[in-house]
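Because showing beats explaining, we let one protein speak, sequence and backbone structure tokens together, and leave readers to judge.
___
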Amino acid sequence: MKRWLWMGLLALTACGGPVETGAQGGAALKEGGRGQFLAYEHTVSIDTDEAQVRPLADKLVAACQADRENNCTLLESGSSQGRDPSAHVKLRAKPAGVARLVALASAGGSVQSRQTHVDDLAKSIIDSNKRLDMLRDYERKLKGLEDKAGNSIDTLMKLSKELASVQSELEQATGQNAHLLERVNLDLLTVRIDAHHHRSFWSLIGSALSEFTQNLSQGVSSLVTGLAYLLPWLLAAFMAWLGGRRLWRKFKRK
């Protein structure tokens, strides 16, 4: 309620003054030429030799960290060893940087799948810019009222409180706007690396042997469970057969 009172007062004092477009907001709208504020997220799956899973992931990480030209930022990376080695790398970079890294990953193995997800952020960015313009204009007018308040302590305190609130909202809105622009200007790339189709003959045999005991125990467990379910029915069927046999003998004697 207080916010609307202040804005009404400012409207009377400003009397239709033009609203200035924020520098960051206006520039954002002009610079977002690629895809009209579309945010791209790419996912690539690579299959390579078992011995190359970890080295390929390390190569992608090193290439990203060295690519300052495309503002490449490593977000996440990891690997697992054992029977089924795998690795993953997640990063954010300019489209040109993403293209280079996809080419590097593809050269290290065979591409099993590639997907691209696109989010349209046009409305979010336009709304964010409008909010920034409104908050900046409101802040400017509050500072103008503060200069005209004179020695009125009560008015100065209220203006200072409202100004602090607006500046806090402005800082938050600026951060949100920067995040939206980062999503538009920098693509997200996730590379998953495994060796499902490049495993050696002896590796497959070793995996089968290592799983033999577990598979055997599961088979025996399933058999015991099945017998536990069937045993009561078998006993009931046997008792019914004995009863029927006795009745049949009595009937024949008569």
In short: The longest helix spans residues 212-253. Residues 201-238 form one domain. The chain has a mean pLDDT of 81. The helical segments are 2-14, 23-31, 53-66, 95-107, 122-148, 153-185, 201-210, 212-253.
